[in-house]
Amino acid sequence: MRIEILTIEGCPNGPAAEREVRGALAALDLDIAPTFRVIASSDEAADVPFAGSPTVLVDGADAVPGSEPIQDLACRMYLTPSGPAGHPTAEMLIPALRAALAR
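Structure tokens predicted for Alkylmercury lyase (103 residues):
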């Protein structure tokens, strides 16, 4: 399983997204290290399913579907159980991780 966190330069939510990814992995007892990719141009954003920074990909697919891919170097908002946030929660990521394990 490959987990990648797509961010833009200076994204303040990248570290929080990484913390939540690691929490989701720990909850499923998975020893996988996520990688980071900084999206630096609209062309790079167009080459991946980038829906704003940060976007978490599990095996190349958005772990939190529902947002359209964009080419803008922009922030992403997530609708979490606690309200809008700049990163997904671990609980939001777990279904994508479970689905990847089942494949």
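The mean pLDDT is 96.
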